[in-house]
Amino acid sequence: MKVVGGLPTPEIWVPVKDFAKDKTTETVAGAMAKLYKKLKEENKGEEKKLPMIALENFFVNTPMSRGKDLKEAVLESRKKLAKKLVDDCKISKEKAEKEAEKLIGATWDVGHINNLRKAGYEGEALKKEVLEDTKKVADVVKHVHITDNFGFFDSHLAPGMGNVPIREI
After folding, report:
1. What is the reported pTM?
2. Beta partners for 54?
3. Rounded to a whole number, what is the distance in angstroms from the first to the last CA of the chain?
4. Is the Cβ–Cβ distance between 114 and 85 less than 8 Å?
5. How far is residue 66 from each of residues 54, 92, 148, 161, measured CA to CA in Å?
6. Alpha helices of the chain — where are they, by DSSP H?
7. Fewer beta carbons within 10 Å, N or C terminal of the chain?
């Protein structure tokens, strides 16, 4: 009992945001590595034609909905993919990192981040928060969804019909 009593308490629960990010990054890296390896083994140079995958921010208060969290997921996916490419496809670390950066990015949905209004942000505070989140993720963005809304629903209004600061983004 003395030995067991001295062991650290096992972690039974993992916060959902950590679990979601871990599973997402494993799935994205695994799928891309598998396809890359398959195309490389066919020896047709087809791995150079792989489609890019872009992880999208979802609704506020869900995992990876904010700029910082989405960027972390993209970077972790790239890191895992690069490792798989080195281990499974026997390419150099430098080439693997370049491939991972090319193949995995983010989709920034400006309507989704504007739903911060549901989280209590209003007016200039909402605009400031949306722009700060946009800056946090900007360097990994490969695709942008541009729709407008009023911050309560993903209305998919035409740009200019809601309060998304599209011009500033």
Report:
1. 0.89
2. 105
3. 60
4. no
5. 15, 33, 18, 23
6. 2-5, 16-41, 67-89, 93-103, 110-114, 123-137
7. N
> Mind listing the pLDDT tens digit of every residue in the chain (169 residues)?
778 778 887 778 888 999 999 999 999 999 999 999 988 888 766 667 788 999 999 989 899 999 999 999 999 999 999 999 999 999 999 999 999 999 999 999 999 999 999 999 999 999 999 999 999 999 999 999 999 999 999 999 999 999 999 999 9
Residue type, 167: R
22 CB neighbour count, 10 Å cutoff: 14
Q: What is the DSSP string of 98-146?
A: HHHHHHEEEEEEHHHHHGGGGGT--HHHHHHHHHHHHHHHGGGEEEEE-
